[in-house]
Specification:
about 220 residues, mainly alpha, about 70% helix, elongated, signal, transport, transmembrane helix
């Protein structure tokens, strides 16, 4: 297993309290219940993928890490840079966004691995995740250009608007895509979250998004 996947799994273990909605009533879990109708069990059902024993942990890690990135760290970094004012503020902003992106890289790697195992690469959740990964590659460069040009001209430039609006769009799409991931998990019934967990996510995500938008305004 690649090192970044191991890191992602370790990080997820530290945050499993955020994912208690997973696995309890999973018809494809091997823990208890009748697995005779389970196409994802390790039984003799031919034609279905055989998942590794840590697949449940991979699902949880993917969900937790991506949620921490797009619903906690990215928005907080955006709010801080808008509302605070002190020397070195852009470093604080950079730390939040860099940490968020590292978590998302780990979540992305796990997500691609699972999507390939489940043959779900064509799903909206998967290609939006790929698009976000590619778009966010440009954000550090745009951020540095924004900072340098702002210091030089004391005003926003095209690089500034590119960095700002790309970031706002990525955070919004990332939050929505997390919800799509929860729905996909329910539809495929692969370690599906409870309906209460899904509703809870949307409530928290909407509140954080509104706070983020309020800081923008």
């Amino acid at each position: 297993m690649p090192n970044f996947t191991k890191i992602a799994l370790v990080l997820a273990c530290a945050t499993t309290a955020l994912a208690q909605g997973y696995g309890g009533n999973n018809p494809y879990s091997n823990n208890g219940g009748d697995s005779s109708n389970n196409p994802y069990s390790n039984g003799s059902n031919a034609g279905y993928p055989s998942f590794p024993s840590n697949f449940h942990l991979m699902v949880t890690a993917h969900a937790v890490l991506a949620t921490l990135a797009f619903s906690v760290l990215f928005p907080i970094g955006g709010i801080v840079i808008r509302l605070a004012s002190f020397p070195g503020l852009w470093w604080i902003h950079g730390v939040f966004q860099t940490l968020a992106y590292i978590l998302y890289i780990a979540a992305f790697a796990l997500g691609i691995s699972m999507a390939q195992s489940l043959d779900k690469m064509g799903e909206t959740h998967a290609w939006l995740g790929i698009a976000l990964f590619v778009v966010l590659l440009f954000q550090p460069v745009l951020g540095v250009l924004h900072h340098v040009m702002f210091k030089k001209y004391s005003r926003r430039t095209v690089w500034s608007y590119g960095h700002i609006w790309l970031g706002r769009a990525a955070i919004t799409v990332g939050m929505v895509n997390a919800g799509l991931g929860l729905r996909l998990s329910q539809e495929t019934r692969v370690f599906a979250p409870s309906q209460g967990a899904v509703v809870g996510y949307w409530v928290v995500a909407v509140i954080i998004w509104l706070l983020y938008m309020a800081s923008v305004v």
